[in-house]
Amino acid sequence: MKKTVLVVDDSDSMRQLVTLALRRGGYDVVESSDGVEALSKLNGRKVHLIISDISMPNMDGVVFVRKVRELPDYKLTPVVMLTAGYQEFSRQEARELGVKAWMMKPFDQDKILDLVSRFAQT
User: Which pTM value belongs to this model?
Assistant: First the structure.
């Protein structure tokens, strides 16, 4: 059974690049353009890992991860933050929310696949 990764990014092109890399790596991908849409897709389906941008409209990545942690089915789901910079989100706050890793944009396909293989829950 393939593992499922939720990819949350407001940039269509970035989301497509991440999705393409993950699908080539054998993962199922659920895409969302912001935190609001992503929360609506966390409807009981098994998600093994979440990759989220930080700066997004409607609901940014920080608020999104906080809301994910309030959902019983997803409170332990690993999260990797994909971002252009660290300025909006401190590493301490990330650790407190259970963020497993950071990935800077632009990302390396091999590195993202390595992170997914290490952190995706079984």
Answer: 0.92
